[in-house]
Design a protein that fits this description.
Strand content: 15-25%
Number of domains: 3
Structural class: alpha/beta
Mean pLDDT: 94
CATH class of the largest domain: Alpha Beta
Oligomer: single chain
CATH topology of the largest domain: Rossmann fold
Shape: globular
Number of helices: 21
Radius of gyration: 25 Å
Number of strands: 15
Largest sheet: 9 strands, mixed
Distance between the termini: 45 Å
Low-confidence stretches: none
């Protein structure tokens, strides 16, 4: 295999650990804190997790390791979408396992949770692990989105663990995956399997976050990768001076990615989905808000700009949410086949017009035809519109063009508007992890084994104090049940980890809000450039603007 110079150099990078995890496994002791409660619905969560609820938070410290000595065979899976640093979680876990006892083993189950069910695995050795240190991607064992949630699945996993003598399973994933980890841990405890489950917080979306998880891994690298591109686009816009760039950024429901990129690059416009919902903004109001920036800049002779659009913003527009719900109802059951059998878009449009309420039809009618048709693309497994397929960056540029056309006809606008569209998604999920993510992820993996060695089950590997240098980070663990509440899913009450949306009273959003009016009119772009891996710490080890503002 041909390697790039950077790839070779990154293999040799030695990730930094929190001070309490340095100096050898034999010198790490544990300090237990107070018992925990779930963030909400305590009685219901407690009843669902009688064996793993209410456990104590813990932190590791320097001292004599008092964990009982025994051979450990650990299984690990990568679950869900890729995030930079996943390989380093596994590398940190492997190094801790082997430094404790060379006879210990680490099984990597392939292609996500399905690997555990199908007993498809690789046993890691030094050569295998060394080929993936400090690299992006999840290709070390692959990932998948199979959910571990039924007792039948749990029983199969328990049998697989028993077959290989596995003492613990580490699940690296997002909120759903760690919810599944908690349920699996409870099953293992209730059935006296002797197998522990430890979770690690992963997602570039930034929505796996709370008072205990300061940052999910991958968020730092992904937002730095996107910000480099957005900065480049801003510089191109300022050079050509004739294009408006509409940039959609990945982030599923929450707008953490868009907000971080805005704080880093200072575009003219950045929509925040949570604010759209709070203000109950209509599509027309959002289009007018963007058009105001276009017109005000044009009045200064600047017919160019940059607008950031969060991936899931349309779901937060109340009138659009109602439209989506009506379309889902309209195509329920066999009616979807009836709709799909219609020969032309005109026939389909007439079908839609008959089925929607007057208010929703008015919303539908203002959408560009391409967006209208995207609403009727392939449904998800539950028969619903796949909102992620909607090209919202094109939707808003088209609505803005209509607004400007009307303003021009009224003599209120005389500029030029030429939009260009971008979607930044997969580009950020497998980038070489930043030093922050390389260090953070290695620490999460190393720390996960300490939780295993001390016998904890249903815990999340927790590294905190992340705005400080890595030596000052704090390693420990918390019961996953502490993060859970009850939500209605598919007609049933389900225990889930509460998603973290952008807080409109939080410091990052307040900083953005205080500056965005000037950014909307002026050209204030910042050009962060590529992620730096070598050089002074203030360049290479900086964390996100979001984390820095939150910890001020």
């Amino acid at each position: 295999m041909t390697l790039s110079s950077l790839q070779k150099a990154r293999y040799e990078y030695v990730p930094k650990l929190p001070s309490m995890l340095r100096g050898g496994i034999s010198e790490i002791s544990v300090l237990e804190g107070a018992e925990t409660k779930s963030v909400a619905d305590c009685e219901k969560i407690s009843a669902l997790f009688p064996n793993t609820y209410g456990k104590k938070e813990i932190v590791f410290k320097k001292g004599q390791n008092t964990a009982p000595a025994k051979k450990q065979v650990v299984g690990v899976i990568l679950s869900g979408g890729q995030a930079p640093g996943g390989h380093n979680v596994i590398c940190g876990l492997y190094d801790a396992i082997k430094s404790t006892n060379p006879e210990n083993e680490l099984y990597g189950f392939k292609n996500g949770p399905i690997g555990l069910i199908e007993d498809d695995f690789v046993v890691f050795d030094d050569a295998y692990i060394d080929a993936y240190r400090n690299t992006g991607g999840f290709d070390i064992i692959g990932s998948g989105r199979t959910k571990l949630e039924t007792k039948e699945q749990f029983a199969i996993v328990a049998d697989v663990c028993k077959k290989h003598g596995i003492t613990a399973v580490v699940i690296i994933g997002g909120d759903d995956s760690n919810t599944n980890a908690a349920v699996l841990a409870e099953y293992f405890a209730a059935n006296n399997t002797g197998v522990q489950v430890i979770g690690c917080p992963k997602t570039i979306d930034g929505d796996l976050k709370n008072e205990d998880i300061e940052c999910s891994f991958g968020f730092d690298t992904a937002t730095k990768t996107y910000s480099e591109i957005i900065g480049n686009i801003g510089r191109d816009a300022n050079s050509a001076k004739k294009y408006w760039h509409f940039v959609k950024v990945m982030g599923r429901s929450a707008s953490h990615v868009a907000l971080e990129c805005a704080l880093t690059t200072q575009p003219n416009i950045c929509l925040i989905s949570e604010e759209v919902a709070a203000k109950k903004m209509s599509l027309s109001e959002i289009a007018d808000y963007i058009a105001d920036s276009v017109a005000n800049r044009a009045a200064k002779g600047m017919n160019f700009g940059v607008a950031l659009i969060p991936e899931g913003v349309v779901e937060f527009v109340p009138e659009f949410s109602v439209l989506i719900a009506e379309i889902n109802e309209l195509l329920a059951g066999s009616r979807a086949d009836e709709f799909n059998a219609l020969p032309t878009w005109a026939d389909k449009y007439a079908f839609i017009e008959k089925g929607l309420t007057k208010a929703s039809m008015e919303v539908f009618a203002i959408l560009p035809e391409g967006i209208q048709q995207q609403l009727f693309l392939e449904r998800d497994p539950h028969g619903n519109v796949q909102v992620s397929l909607i090209e919202s960056e094109k939707l808003f540029s088209a609505l803005v063009a209509d607004k400007l056309k009307a303003r021009k006809a009224a003599g209120a606008y005389s500029g030029k508007f030429t939009p260009i569209h971008h979607f930044l998604g997969y580009e950020g999920r497998c980038a070489f992890p930043s030093n922050f993510d390389a260090d953070y992820c290695y620490s999460l993996g190393y720390n996960a084994f300490m939780l295993i060695q001390y016998g904890y089950n249903g815990y999340l590997s927790k590294i905190s104090n992340l705005s400080k240098p890595a030596t000052e980070w704090v390693a420990g663990g918390m019961p996953i049940t502490k993060m859970m509440n009850i939500e209605r899913r598919h007609g049933e009450d389900k225990p889930v980890i509460k998603k973290a949306l952008v807080e409109l009273d939080g410091k990052p959003f307040k900083f953005f809000k205080a500056h965005r009016d000037s950014w909307a009119v002026e050209t204030s772009y910042v050009y962060p450039g590529a992620i730096q891996y070598y050089g002074p710490a203030e360049v290479c080890d900086i964390t996100t603007k979001t984390l820095a503002l939150e910890k001020e």
